[in-house]
Specification:
Elements: E1 8-9, E2 12-13, H1 14-46, H2 53-78, H3 85-121, H4 126-154, H5 159-176, H6 178-193, E3 201-204, E4 207-214, E5 218-222, E6 228-232, H7 233-238, E7 241-243, E8 250-258, H8 264-280, E9 284-293, E10 298-306, H9 311-332, E11 340-344, E12 352-356
Antiparallel strand pairs: 1-2, 3-4, 3-7, 4-5, 5-6, 8-10, 9-10, 11-12
Helix pairs in contact: 1-2, 2-3, 3-4, 8-9
Main location: membrane
Pfam families: MS_channel_1st, MS_channel_2nd, MS_channel_3rd
Subcellular location: Cell membrane
């Protein structure tokens, strides 16, 4: 009677199968020990460093490299057996599928992790990271598509026709959806160039509002009267955008007019008076000058800065300056000018009428 281990099952002896199973079990134990001790040791070392790049590499090795290495070694062990051409083809196809699967997952993981790590190092807000996740989904889909084409090529299929078909189909889709693609590329411009972010108050043409959401196709604004405005990204990118939230301070240019009856002494004192009033109101004084002689008034122009973009603070400061200026002129007897004309009465050189001009 033939010993059991020498019996033939298919094209291999039972002993051959036992040896293969033994090697597979040995490899499994070795990789378990490798993962338990070496990976833990590497995690301990990377935990001492300041950067997280090496941490991500160790995680990638644990999640993708080691499992693939185990499957690849098992494939190498199994192929030492004698199999029919059909079974060898199936095993080879299975290895191709496994290789592409782990390669794509590894690339996607490293790309996602490193981009997020870069965003955190730049101290990007959570809303920006959320937007990035939506963008990365599109990139991952493209990588999976490229991996699928590579898999078909490895399996022996002619991918030239597929790629050509995708090219023609892509052109047709691009022509049919050019507005959508335009908005998509505009979204990429908005994301990387950052002309505005969620929470910014912007003015685009005659439209103004606070950015509530930046989508792949449209951005949502909340107007001052409470309406929600949905604007295509392409229209936003094409237009001049006034971002008031990024205003560091407000520059104010005002002018006042006093009557021609104002004395030279008061005219010389007005620039200094304006400086004192503006400084006392908490604004930054720039300049004040007698600018010109108008039809009805002697005109002064003054410039100051409010060191905040806050609109309410701006209005409060301007109001305080105007009230203080009115009070100061009233105390000194300086008159604000208004459109008027002087008529001298015939026969009396000293008699005159000041009439307002409508």
């Amino acid at each position: 009677m033939q010993p059991f281990l020498q019996k033939m099952i298919g094209e291999n002896k039972v002993l051959d199968y036992v040896i293969v199973l033994g090697w597979m079990l040995l490899v499994w134990v070795m990789l378990k020990l490798f993962k338990k001790y070496l990976i833990r040791y590497l995690q301990h070392l990377t935990g001492k460093t300041n950067n997280q790049f090496d941490d991500q590499l160790v995680i990638a090795a644990e999640k993708f490299v080691i499992p693939y290495l185990y499957l690849f070694i098992n494939y190498s062990i199994i192929t030492t057996l004698n199999f029919s051409q059909k079974i060898q083809h199936v095993l080879s196809a299975a290895l191709s599928v496994i290789t592409i699967y782990y390669a794509v997952r590894l690339i996607n993981y490293l790309m996602h992790s490193l981009v997020l790590l870069y965003m955190h190092l730049k101290n990007e807000p959570p809303i920006r990271i959320k937007q990035l996740n939506g963008l990365l989904v599109l990139v991952k889909v493209l990588i999976w598509g490229a991996g699928f084409i590579m898999l078909l090529d490895n399996l022996g299929y002619n991918v030239t026709t597929i790629i050509a078909g995708l090219g023609v189909g892509g052109i047709a889709i691009a022509l049919a959806a050019q507005n959508i693609l335009s908005d998509l590329f505009s979204y990429l411009v908005i994301f990387f160039d950052k002309p505005f972010e969620v929470g910014d108050f912007i003015v685009v043409g005659t439209t103004s509002g606070v950015i509530e959401r930046i989508g792949i196709k449209t951005s949502h604004l909340r107007s001052l009267d409470g309406q929600q405005l949905v604007m295509p990204n392409a229209e936003l990118v094409k237009s001049t955008i006034h971002n008031f939230k990024r205003m560091e301070r407000r520059r104010v240019v005002n002018s006042i007019g006093v009557t021609y009856q104002t004395s030279k002494q008061h005219l010389e004192a007005i620039p200094g008076l304006l400086k004192d009033i503006i400084t006392a109101a908490g604004a930054t004084f720039d300049r004040a000058h007698l600018k010109s002689f108008g039809d009805f008034a002697i005109l002064f122009e003054y410039v100051f800065y409010i060191e905040s973009p806050d609109y309410v603070l701006y209005m409060n400061t301007v109001q305080a300056i105007n009230l203080s200026l009115f009070e100061a002129f009233e105390q000194r007897g300086i008159e604000f000018a208004y459109p008027s004309q002087t008529i001298y009465l015939a026969g009396n050189a000293n008699a005159k009428l000041n009439l307002p001009v409508n």
